[in-house]
Write a structure and sequence with these properties.
Layout (H helix, E strand, L loop, with lengths): L5 E4 L18 H12 L7 E3 L6 H4 L5 H9 L5 H4 L18 H20 L5 E4 L20 H9 L6 E5 L6 H6 L6 E8 L22 E6 L5 H19 L3 E5 L17 H12 L5 E4 L6 H16 L40 H14 L17 H5 L12 H23 L9 H14 L3 E3 L6 E3 L21 H8 L20 H11 L6 H6 L4 E3 L2 E3 L9 H8 L2
Parallel strand pairs: 1-2, 1-3, 3-8, 4-5, 4-7, 5-6, 7-8
Antiparallel strand pairs: 9-10, 11-12
Length: about 575
Amino acid sequence: MSKRRVAYYYDADVGSYTYGVTHAMKPQRMRITHELVSAYEMLPNMHVLRAKRASAETLTRFHTDEYIEFLAKVTPENARRLTYQGTRFLVGDDNPPFEGVFEFSSISAGGSIAAAKRLMEGQADIAINWAGGLHHAKKREASGFCYINDIVLGILEMLRYVPRVLYIDIDCHHGDGVEEAFYTSDRVMTASFHKFGEFFPGTGHIEDRGRGPGRGYAVNVPLRDGVTDESYKSIFEPVIDKIIDVFRPSAIVLQCGADSLSGDKLGGLNLTMHGHAHCVQYVRSKNIPLMLLGGGGYTVKNVARAWTYETACALGIEKDINPNLPWNEYFEWFGPRYRLEVLESNLEDLNFRGGALDKNRETILQFLSELRPAPSVQMQDVPREGLEEQLGLPGIRAHGPIDDMDERLAQHARFVYNAQGHSDESQTESEPESDSSSRRGRRTSRRIRNGKKRMSIVTSQYFDVPAIPPGHDEDDDEGCGHEHGHEAWTSARSGLPSGKRKRRFFQSIAEWDPVKRVVTERERAGVRAGEVSYMANGGRRRVRGRDKVSEEREDFDVDADIEEDDE
């Protein structure tokens, strides 16, 4: 197998965080994987890098400002208050507000963004970030153990350089967060191979194919319990071949969630380590720039085995490594066999019942055959750094008081978002339904996305999004510039879709007011609104139509003062 230039991203701090002693997600698995990769002496064959951690501003390329600000402030002590008694941002028990959640997320996102940039600049053929692959995170909400969607951020970085990106997800769970982010785009095709049914996240029906310009660019391959290497390969290879032939991607992102391995605590599939790694080998053989990411995986020793072997696959040395594990710091974890292997169990493969696998393969290939040729995209050179960094300008928090132009722009933004919301409500979509069972599957897939239901990744049970408690402090501002009172809550809830409307992604109960945010930040910094103009006038307040010394005046209109000073 030909050699490739491989960049390997790892931050030693990533294994120091914990979701909780009893939580299924163990960040330590990345440290164990790294130790095993090091024990096999693969590191000298790769360019080992530590990525710069993603800043809050970088994370807002996809996520909302209020959500990132929340992650930066949340702790176990203030979580109930900042989430409004569990009604926002962290809904349910899957995503605890553990210490260092923002730093942990910034490591994951920073690695994926740096890996994408390195690939696109031609400095590597394959880039690996096993700390990435958190595909469930939504635009303004954590989901399925994922807080920041590093995959979307990495793909957005790629789209600055290339016209089309293919995202492949072999995690046991549907890659709903990435699919939703690019559901209306024809520049990113998402292909998810996942277990489907009453299983988290409850989305990923075969008929979910995108919307608008993105119609046909979301490919979902639903699987049943017990899928083996042979059955997985029989649908993975033809689907990927057809996608590459039709879509012609410029780069590929492969999410290697290890919960599709046999014996995973939360999965239900039956892949061996070699069957899982075959996907990496097959995509690598296409000679397209490739980014490998981690993802799910809750039997820690099997996760480390799989990702170590897939690192060897990226290097093209998988046939040369010894299946007997070398000594390493976590050697005792791999007993009693101490081998680099994950064997299949005697779980029955339900995918052959009624020819379900063959039917799905034929249906998906038919969908792809109906897709128009690869869309053309007009590309232009993009600055590698923002203008602010180039000129050394200060950040937004260093700006002076807001003026009339700031206010008009904020009002225009609110008008645009409101108009977009009304347009989404009125938009209709014609999607053929094959039979009653298909309609039931579509309804199941939409129960999560309509904003009223959530599903737990641990129990795969639905639960209602809790309502804001009646006794909650309506005047509590939290320092983020929102109106969190009952009126704001009611107005936001009124925008949620009813059961008859089409789904709208990224629903929020918050009203984001840029003007109020700036005013709030200045007040928290100890600067009263209008104080600058007050000092500039020598302590005089200029009132429209007359001059008046207002030494004792405390309450005044911020906008009026700014307007008067501009005269």
